[in-house]
Please model this.
Amino acid sequence: MKLMSNLKKKQICAAIICGLMFTGGQAEAEEPVPDLYGANEPHTVSGVTGYATRNSAEAVVTGADFIVTGSGWPTVYGGYSDSGAAVHDNKVTLNGTEVGYNVYGGYSSGGAVSRNTVIIKGENVIKGTFSDGSGRVCGGYDDGTGGTVSGNTVIVEKDSTLKGFVYGGYGDSSSAKDVSGNNVYIYGTVDGDVYGGKIKNASGSITNNTVTLGKADDTDAKAQVKNLVLNEKGGKTTGGGILNVYNSGHSVGGKLLSNDTDNFKLADGATINFYINAADMTQVPEKVKTMLTVGGPSTLGGVNIRAGVQNAGKICQGDKIVLLHGDGNLVVSPELIKPMKASDGIMKADLNIELSDNFVDLSDYKYAASNGKIIATALSDAEADLGPDSAAKSPVETMAASVSLINAGTDMMAGEAMTGAAQSTAISAAEGSASTLA
Model:
């Protein structure tokens, strides 16, 4: 029997994978193959036509939903357009794979990229071209003129690991218009930096991007990342954005939001919400838990820091928890450490939030410390039971307590919305059924 040529083998491999995209089957990438496309405009990469095409009568690229395993994939796209079409509602799940460059839930050159999702399960490596040998995973990405990136999501599941950088949304163009409302949920380990949103255009708009560490209803979902930035514009950390921290045991190895000690208010207007698990609070000094440990310097001079008890349980007077422990130099503004808003019908737990004794007054309401801590202490006993229906509700609906923080300073800006309620809804929408492509 005559042996097949390498070219013939590659052609057959591509044909098999193409068929599997439409049948939901499985295959193993035993050798390098063309880029993967879930839904895209007719497009040719290295002489091989993309695996699926959009309806040319519709100016959208949408509907991809598949799982990628194995190794050898150069770049993976959930939805793709290189002519400015809108790319929305595509989903890619990585489950134990190695990708040569980058992964995109949705990708466009100048179009609107929205509601695309990347889910990370198992052990995954994104090689890329960054100096540390890693690439990027983007919920949504646009590199064209006037592009917008909004409402996209990346989820790193519990017990999963990812070697690579993570972006909820990325406007990678000097003329990108807007990056807003993107979400990153980290329940596992990211060996790389995490961004809620990033826009190259220094004049563009970047707002309301959110990163969540931990899961309201799962105390074993521990998040570990290298560096964490909510918003970056024109190559610099900028204000706004929301960081939610649920339960204890999370870590950021390097900087949190900003490490610019020359500009204490670089991350002005950002908010960090600490949702305390009542069971994590204790009076035993050696058993006091920490919600978030930060290894590098972090300048949070203009950042709002809030805390509340997010579940039913019992709190005793004198119980403590460390909200934030900065191993490096930590700069905060005590007047911005404020209570979450109370809702009618829920338990109120009086907490005192204070800085550890080693903080030094830098003037202008800024305090700094190396190895500093922000500590919450219960001022009275409190207990609540929300009943059997609480498990089915959102984090805000099931929140058994809010806080009345006792600390000097002015009131928190009115109308600041809590974001925990969006967590369950966003994840449920993102984690639907998917066909499998290996």
Remarks:
- The longest strand covers residues 320-332.
- DSSP finds two helices and 41 strands in the chain.
